[in-house]
From TrEMBL:
Residues 247-446 form the Histidine kinase domain. The keyword Endoplasmic reticulum does not apply. GO terms for cellular component: plasma membrane. Keywords: Kinase, Membrane, Phosphoprotein, Transferase, Transmembrane, Transmembrane helix. This is histidine kinase. GO terms for molecular function: protein histidine kinase activity. It comes from Rhodovulum euryhalinum.
Length: 448
């Protein structure tokens, strides 16, 4: 259950609650209907009992008899489901429907005109609903007490209740489906602010927004406010960390310069081997410092910056075409307008410049630069037609200080990768036919 989505949990809980409510209400309605039907049945039995009592007379032999039978034909059909019985003066009179069966009335005491309602067992084990009344015979009938009862088969009541439930079932099902659908719609509307928060967090991650904001319902707003406070605190901590890193990198540049000067004095004093060792260590340290400075600068500019890819490439080519390598090459550029990267223009130029310079240095006759949008990102491909590099050496080439030949410092590709990764992008090198291809992926930004 813990792995189910909140929407599905609420939907399942709502569906179960609606189903239980419909079932309970249906059973309650059936019980009310059964009680109503039983009251109506008792009212009819009371009328039937009045008719039976009104028909009691003295026969020619002086015995009590029912001179007028009730009109309902079920009284005359054997085990027909409707029965009357009279007990007086030591004799028991029965309807034809009882045949030879005597209703087992309880031996309770009734006042004159009082009625009792009983649930009894009738002929062929029929469950009976009976109403019993005690009356005093008038003087013309000789006086005395007479107990009369009228009963009916309760099976008809149970059948009526079952029929009611059967007729109610489809309407209950439709009502349950409608309530479940309404609950699902209510859940969708109620959880919509969470979707808005998710979209706003994605905007913050991509740099389009800085905070969640305050335009949320009252129940969600405290969460948004806490997240905004957390973002503000994190920005302050990151800013302090970046400042300390930048200060540390700048602080190391002066000692490094001193080391390089010391190496020069050692070489002038005839200690060339020691000078080379010091310069090697100083260059390695400077590589670390330059990379950290580049990463810190990119991070401090944040994700709010915007840079036009076509403008950045055009500016770089104006410079590179004036160099010895750039002037001899055919530059093929395919960059549609409106490709905006979520990066500072200087950082984008530095990363692209390192890749373009590397391509110009190794290309034989042509360098291709192409770009296209890919969802929320921008893909840039820089391909040269040079000798290329073995696939197993590509990863090593991206390491700090590594280079494919003896020209250059070997820091360009590593710094370019650091800048791209600081911008939440990727840089991949792959062997082309011929040459080497660099695939640069950066987060895109709205042209506005």
């Amino acid at each position: 259950m813990t792995r189910l989505s909140l929407r599905l949990r609420l939907a399942l809980a709502g569906a179960v609650a609606v189903t239980l409510a419909i079932v309970v209400s249906s059973l309650g309605l059936a019980a009310l209907f059964g009680a109503h039907v039983e009251r109506r049945a008792l009212a009819e039995l009371s009328v039937q009992l009045d008719q039976v009592l009104a028909g009691v007379e003295r026969g020619t032999d002086g015995a009590l008899e029912l001179a007028t039978d009730p009109a309902d034909p079920r009284f005359r059909r054997v085990y027909g489901g409707l029965y009357w019985q009279i007990a007086a003066e030591g004799q028991v009179l029965r309807s034809r429907s009882l045949w030879d069966y005597e209703i087992p009335l309880p031996a309770d005491t009734l006042g004159d005109g009082a009625e009792h309602v009983h649930t009894l067992v009738g002929p062929v084990d029929q469950p009976l609903l009976a109403i019993e009344r005690s009356v005093t015979l008038p003087a013309r009938l000789g006086g005395g007490v007479m107990r009369a009862a009228v009963a009916m088969d309760r099976t008809a009541l149970a059948v009526a209740r079952a029929d009611f439930l059967r007729d109610l079932a489809p309407y209950s099902a439709v009502l349950a489906a409608a309530l479940i659908a309404a609950g699902w719609a209510q859940i969708a509307v109620g959880l919509r602010p969470l979707g808005a928060i998710r979209a706003r967090v994605a905007d913050i991650r991509s740099g389009r927004e800085r905070r969640l904001g305050a335009d949320f319902p009252a129940e969600v707003q405290p969460l948004a406010a806490e997240v905004d406070d957390l973002l503000a605190a994190r920005e302050q901590e990151v800013e302090r960390a970046r400042t300390r890193a930048g200060d540390l990198a700048h602080g190391l540049k002066t000692p490094l310069q001193a080391l390089m000067g010391e190496a020069g004095r050692l070489r002038a004093g005839g200690r060339g081997a020691a000078a080379d060792a010091v310069e090697e260590i100083a260059c390695a340290m400077r590589a670390h410092v330059d990379r950290e400075l580049a990463r810190t600068r990119v991070a401090m500019r944040g994700r709010q910056a915007r840079a036009d890819l076509a403008d950045a490439v055009a500016g770089l080519l104006r410079v590179i075409r004036r160099t010895e390598d750039g002037a001899r090459l055919d530059w093929r550029v395919d960059l549609p307008e409106g490709l905006i990267a979520a990066a500072d223009s200087a950082d984008l130029s530095e990363a692209l410049g390192a890749l373009i310079e590397n391509a110009a240095r190794h290309a034989r006759s042509c360098v291709e630069i192409a770009g296209r949008p890919s969802g929320q990102q921008i893909e840039i491909v820089i391909r040269d037609d040079g000798p290329g590099i073995a696939p197993d050496r590509i990863e090593a080439l991206m390491a700090r200080g590594a280079r494919a030949d003896t020209r250059g410092s070997g820091l360009g590709l590593a710094i370019a990768r650091d800048i791209v990764e600081a911008l939440d992008g990727t840089l991949d090198l792959s062997a082309a036919d011929p040459g080497l291809a660099a695939l640069l992926t950066l987060p895109g930004a709205d042209p506005s």
